[in-house]
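Open question from group meeting: does this chain pack into something compact, or does most of it stay loose? Before anyone orders reagents, we agreed to write out a predicted structure and look at it together. Recording both the input and the output here so the notebook holds the full record.
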Amino acid sequence: MRLWSIHPRYFDAQALVAAWREGLIAQRVLGDDTSALHDHPQLQRFRDAPQPDAAIGAYLTALADEADERGTGLDRESIVVEAAAVGQLVVTDGQLDYEWGNLTRRLIERSPAVADRWANVWRPEAHPLFTVVGGGIAEWEVV
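Structure tokens returned:
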């Protein structure tokens, strides 16, 4: 499971759909304490949020907004809690850099045109749910 901290504008179509699919899985898992994925490291920051269901809803909403910008739709009715005022979660600049390296490698392999579009980006903007602070790679990240 990968719940990117990167703004979805940088995603190719495959990454956008995969983030949506995995976000929906995360939404289901966060609401089910018995799920085998309940303790998945990628869910840590959402579980730690004051309103985990609203946080994952805000995450999914930004993905749907990006899909709308591209003229393709994602089914917003799949979002259980669409929250306008959830607040922001924190992501470190080290985590953002780590994810950017991962995404860039994937884009180079499967979507060279998208990789070229973002080739001059040193550090991407964070997903709208996150605010960036200084720090290293997150403890929950599997490196």
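Observations to bring back to the group:
The mean pLDDT is 92.
The longest strand covers residues 89-92.
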